[in-house]
Amino acid sequence: MGKRHKRIELRKVEQAESRSRNGPRKAAERIRRDARMMALLRVHKPPYIPAINSWLSAKLGKPVAKITPQDVEKLLATVKS
Protein backbone atom coordinates (compact mmCIF):
# COMPACT_ATOMS: atom_id res chain seq x y z
CA MET A 1 0.00 0.00 0.00
CA GLY A 2 1.13 3.51 -0.71
CA LYS A 3 1.49 6.64 1.32
CA ARG A 4 -2.03 7.76 0.51
CA HIS A 5 -3.54 4.61 1.95
CA LYS A 6 -1.43 4.99 5.08
CA ARG A 7 -2.66 8.59 5.54
CA ILE A 8 -6.26 7.49 5.14
CA GLU A 9 -5.84 4.74 7.72
CA LEU A 10 -4.18 7.12 10.17
CA ARG A 11 -6.98 9.61 9.66
CA LYS A 12 -9.59 6.95 10.49
CA VAL A 13 -7.74 6.06 13.69
CA GLU A 14 -7.41 9.71 14.72
CA GLN A 15 -11.09 10.34 14.05
CA ALA A 16 -12.10 7.36 16.19
CA GLU A 17 -9.88 8.59 19.03
CA SER A 18 -11.35 12.07 18.72
CA ARG A 19 -14.92 10.75 18.90
CA SER A 20 -14.18 8.68 21.98
CA ARG A 21 -12.49 11.65 23.65
CA ASN A 22 -15.00 14.35 22.68
CA GLY A 23 -18.24 12.34 22.75
CA PRO A 24 -18.74 12.34 26.53
CA ARG A 25 -17.82 16.03 26.76
CA LYS A 26 -20.36 16.92 24.10
CA ALA A 27 -23.08 14.84 25.76
CA ALA A 28 -22.47 16.62 29.06
CA GLU A 29 -22.55 19.99 27.31
CA ARG A 30 -25.88 19.11 25.65
CA ILE A 31 -27.37 18.38 29.08
CA ARG A 32 -26.06 21.69 30.46
CA ARG A 33 -27.37 23.57 27.42
CA ASP A 34 -30.82 21.97 27.75
CA ALA A 35 -31.02 23.03 31.41
CA ARG A 36 -29.82 26.56 30.59
CA MET A 37 -32.31 26.98 27.74
CA MET A 38 -35.20 25.61 29.80
CA ALA A 39 -34.43 28.16 32.52
CA LEU A 40 -34.37 30.95 29.93
CA LEU A 41 -37.58 29.66 28.37
CA ARG A 42 -39.38 29.81 31.72
CA VAL A 43 -38.29 33.44 32.26
CA HIS A 44 -38.74 34.91 28.77
CA LYS A 45 -41.91 35.33 26.79
CA PRO A 46 -42.26 35.45 22.99
CA PRO A 47 -40.59 36.76 20.92
CA TYR A 48 -37.64 34.71 22.14
CA ILE A 49 -33.99 35.56 21.67
CA PRO A 50 -32.25 33.86 18.72
CA ALA A 51 -30.45 31.32 20.93
CA ILE A 52 -33.74 30.08 22.36
CA ASN A 53 -35.35 30.06 18.91
CA SER A 54 -32.55 27.93 17.51
CA TRP A 55 -32.69 25.51 20.43
CA LEU A 56 -36.50 25.24 20.22
CA SER A 57 -36.32 24.59 16.51
CA ALA A 58 -33.83 21.76 17.04
CA LYS A 59 -35.79 20.25 19.95
CA LEU A 60 -39.17 20.40 18.25
CA GLY A 61 -37.96 19.60 14.75
CA LYS A 62 -39.81 22.58 13.27
CA PRO A 63 -38.82 25.88 11.70
CA VAL A 64 -39.04 28.79 14.14
CA ALA A 65 -41.94 30.35 12.23
CA LYS A 66 -44.05 27.23 12.80
CA ILE A 67 -43.47 26.94 16.56
CA THR A 68 -46.64 27.75 18.47
CA PRO A 69 -47.06 28.66 22.15
CA GLN A 70 -48.74 25.28 22.61
CA ASP A 71 -45.58 23.55 21.40
CA VAL A 72 -43.54 25.45 23.98
CA GLU A 73 -46.06 24.62 26.74
CA LYS A 74 -45.93 20.95 25.80
CA LEU A 75 -42.12 20.98 25.89
CA LEU A 76 -42.11 22.64 29.31
CA ALA A 77 -44.66 20.12 30.60
CA THR A 78 -42.67 17.10 29.41
CA VAL A 79 -39.50 18.32 31.09
CA LYS A 80 -41.20 19.13 34.41
CA SER A 81 -42.57 15.60 34.78
Q: What's this, in brief?
A:
The protein has 81 residues and is mainly alpha-helical.
Characterization of this structure:
The chain is mainly alpha-helical and 81 residues long. It has one domain (3-80). 79% of the residues lie in helices and 0% in strands. It has helices at 3-43, 50-60, 69-80. The model has no long low-confidence stretch (mean pLDDT 91).
Task: Write out key terms for the chains shown.
single chain, 81 residues, mainly alpha, 3 helices, 0% strand
Largest sheet: none
Percentage of residues in DSSP E strands? under 5%
- The poorly predicted ranges are none
Query: What's the overall average pLDDT, rounded?
Result: 91
Separate helix tally: 3
How many distinct domains? 1
Number of strands: 0
Morphology: elongated
Proportion of helical residues: over 70%
Structural class given helices, strands, pairing? mainly alpha
Please trace the helix and strand order, writing H or E for each element: HHH
- Round the Cα radius of gyration to an integer and report it: 19 Å
N-C termini distance: 57 Å
